[in-house]
Amino acid sequence: xDLSFRGLVVAFVMFRGIACAQPAGTRAxxxxxxxxxxxxxxxxxxxxxxxxxxxxxxWVVSEMHGMHTPQVQTITDSVFRLxxxxxxxxxxxxxxxxxxxxxNSVEAKGGQFNGPSVLIGAFSNGLAMVTLQxxxxxxFRMTHHRDVHHVPTFAIEYELKPQAVGIPGCxxxxxxxGEAIIDANTFDTLHFQMYVPRYPIVPDIxxxxxxxxxxxxxxxxxxxxxxxxxxxxxxxxxDGAFVWTFRxxxxxxxxxxxxxxxxxxxxxxxxxxxxxxxxDSQPPTP
Length: 286
Prior knowledge:
Structural class: mainly beta
Number of helices: 2
Order of helices and strands: EHEEEEEHEEEEEEEEE
Number of strands: 15
Helix content: under 10%
Strand order of the largest sheet: 5-4-3-2-13-12-11-10-9-8-7
Shape: globular
Distance between the termini: 33 Å
């Protein structure tokens, strides 16, 4: 199963970019919902404008089981990569790829990730629905304020408007709803979740789909971003006969780059030696 967002909604670009240092106190207090959505919109634009090509370690457990079928499970270690498309276009096209290192502890030698459940698009165009720009597609409601691990947060619930299903740029799945948990000081997204009651899982099979992302701060090229540390996805057929799950963890984010050094040979001449992206990149930042 391919839970793919790619190319679905051009405006949906994921994850909040650069979070600058903020003064103490809950900055969201007293702001209107539209003002908060505008702050999240600005984070999205900053992410689109500044996020570099990067790669990270990815660990995935992908499963499928059914009433009358044996369970299929793959445990995959991969290098996950995000690459920017043509830098002259805005918003940019963000391309996700994986290089599989091993599957079920067997060396894969750069093979492809084949599931049985694959989630594509979470890094490139999954989260920007909680922004002012998406007022045309969603109804938003700000709910509780609370502390999470001593960090003040607030929640924004969203639900796809019934009339939005046919609007270009809006999700085509009626009943889509979810919630985002936001850091009230930095406006970083800490948790995001979505529920689709009748998702087209595979041809001729629809069913409920739930997915969520947990985030952690990552520094790339001197900028701070909220990046996924855990993704969980689960879908099932309407009759409950089949269930697909996808669980992924991410760590060791690096900026992709090319490092060049000058080599002097015995004749006193020099030559430039380039290293491919990902070999001599910046070290990970915790």
